[in-house]
User: What shape does this take?
Amino acid sequence: MTKRSKIPVVLTIAGSDSGGGAGIQADLKTFAALGVHGTSAITAVTAQDTTGVSGIHEIPPAMVRAQIETVVKDMEVKFAKTGMLSSSPIISEVSRAITEFGLNAVVDPVMVAKSGAHLLRQEALFSLKEALIPVAHVLTPNVEEASALTKMGISSMDDVLRAGGMLLDMGARYVVIKGGHLPGEPVDTLFSRGRPPVFYRGERIPSKTTHGTGCTFSAAIASCLALGYPVEEAVGMAKQFVRNAILHGLEVGRGVGPVNPISDLEMDAEKFRVILSVSDALCLLESSEFAPLLSPECQINLVMSLPLRYASGVESVCGVPGRIANAGGRLKPASCPAFGGSRHVARAVLSAMRHDPYVRSAMNIRYSAEILRVLNDLGYSYSSYDRTKEPEDVKAAEGASIPWGTEEAIKAHGRVPDVIYHTGDWGKEPMMLVFGRDAVEVAMKAIRIARRLAEVTSTGTPSG
Assistant: This one.
């Protein structure tokens, strides 16, 4: 039996968010996405959704301690993160546990929820400063939290630099002040003793899905540290992780939606599924004796997109670089499937997905009146557009023609049909596009069309 390698274990000591966007829910998703085993000690149960916090029930400090002790005595836990610690007794208990069990703690000094609800009692601020910051391996306040801890206004980078030094003097080994709440370019700043500050620059992301950013950031730092990365690298990785989690946040609820910590993991899995589907479809096309009957002068491309929530452009669509040629009576792809391997057919799929997100694949084939009759025979739906009526501004814009035509055909049909075609224009070859849910479905449709075409034109032998 092969011995398995150990997986790092990370502990989150934080509150529960019933809406699933922040707190231990966000932490555990982050841990899993980054490849560490997540454990938890719940400090409070909140009744919370995307619009606010309607109730808080604190867990007795002794029970918080019991959760921590039970986990660390059974598993090898070197790194932890703290979130919502709402009272002085809970903070004191957690501080003692961090010291006793030798935990490297990433301390997120949570004070106020995204909705504005207070998650830290006013009298507990002193305990946070006196008991928790001195045992923090990494402290991750935002500008408002850093201001509350240092009792100074922070409105500029000079203020950030001063506040960072003050927080180091309070005992934290490393301090990351998140600068997203300052005007201008958002910059996070890492402070450590005896070293110059490290600046992590980013861009502002217009998004209504930012609930849980702080929790996710600190959990990502703890995960990366547990995986062996140095602090400077761990902070940079965590920042990129949170950026992607915001970009692909979940639009749920009536308020501020949550970030999506598993977006990177899910996107990698979806890319694998897409490449597998396109590869399987290419095998079907290569093995078909009839498929070459569909090859146009410009050759064929077969594409499949990532799901709509991850589809940001043609780079999100997998195609065949160099296209698929009719070589000696068989279809042969010029290369292996790759994302960004198509422009024209990819744009058609992206347009179709705006009307039906489940239609994620397409393949171009040649146009003919015989193929139209075959579509009727097979019961496939189709629609068309007239390229001679394409507006001049659309013609002048690079890459705009196919999305325009696809939109016109879908609007005329009322939904995404099996096939969209046009009969060409000056210098433009007539073309058909076969659509489907995945690349294998599209390839099977194309092969059925080709087989039936062979039958009706007597250019091939019908097969069962």
